[in-house]
Design brief:
Number of strands: 0
Mean pLDDT: 88
Distance between the termini: 20 Å
Low-confidence stretches: none
Radius of gyration: 14 Å
Strand content: under 5%
Number of helices: 2
Helix content: over 70%
Largest sheet: none
Oligomer: single chain
Shape: elongated
Length: about 60
């Protein structure tokens, strides 16, 4: 059985990534812009969050 702490950390990493994607999409739809006005910052944030998710999944033995 997987370590509950590692499982929770993976869940939180996925949740953070999902929330960032959803909020950036909602912002873009509300403003009428197809891309965030601060696209470089968003790209960096998503890249970091995805890397964290991959690390947490690897801790659980999941390969990506």
């Amino acid at each position: 059985m997987s370590d509950p702490t590692a499982l929770w950390q993976a869940h939180r990493a996925a949740d953070n990534l999902s929330n960032t994607l959803a909020s950036s999409y909602e912002e873009a739809m509300a403003t009428g812009f197809p891309v965030s006005a601060d696209g470089q910052r968003l790209t960096q944030q998503l890249t970091e969050q995805f890397a964290t998710l991959r690390e947490r999944l690897a801790d659980l033995g999941v390969t990506t």
